[in-house]
Amino acid sequence: MEPVSLWVFLASAIVLLIGGGVLGAGGKLFSYNPHPEGYTRPDFASDADTGPTIGPIVEALTKRGKNIYAKCSGCHGSTGSGDGNQYPPLAGSEWVTGNTARLAQIILNGLSGPIDVAGKTYNGNMPAQAPLTAAELAAVMTYIRNEFNDVGDVVSVEQAASAIKVYEGRPQGAITVKELDADHNQMLEGEAVDPSTSVNFETLQPAAAE
Length: 210
Fold this sequence. Notes:
Layout: H1 6-26, E1 54-56, H2 57-69, H3 73-76, H4 94-97, H5 100-109, E2 111-117, E3 120-126, H6 134-147, H7 157-168, H8 177-183, E4 198-200
Antiparallel strand pairs: 1-4, 2-3
């Protein structure tokens, strides 16, 4: 094996020196800086930035109710259609579109035993969704009555509060259809609210009053 020529070492050294000079002169061209000069970090959009802050109360409650309903969709489906077997539909259900006191007590207490929905009998157990605030209950009820059934009204916070008061005065445990029909087959107490009433989406208070 022949020894490497001295001229090869010298040529390689010259190439390295020239290359280093080029890279050094390149400056920012070959540097990594995640925040270059003049960079400004953009603000992240919050949920409040993604839509109106003032509008009809039916829209405010429906928007809020959609988020609350997310935990119910595992059984009743994202479109409220149920599974056709164990979990009944909310779309087209007289228990959703009918008297609001019954619906509120089902949500708060859960349901035990058979229930007829859209001509079919379901015999399962629904867990209680309480505790809920009056605003949360009003929102989820308004959402399923309008998103899945187009009832066209709102369940007000005042009406939802009256349902919670009834729930708190009842012995704990899932409710049955027999009790619902006997004690809660009516509309919730409280003044009805025009769905077009303009409110602050965060506080649900009339916009004109703020």
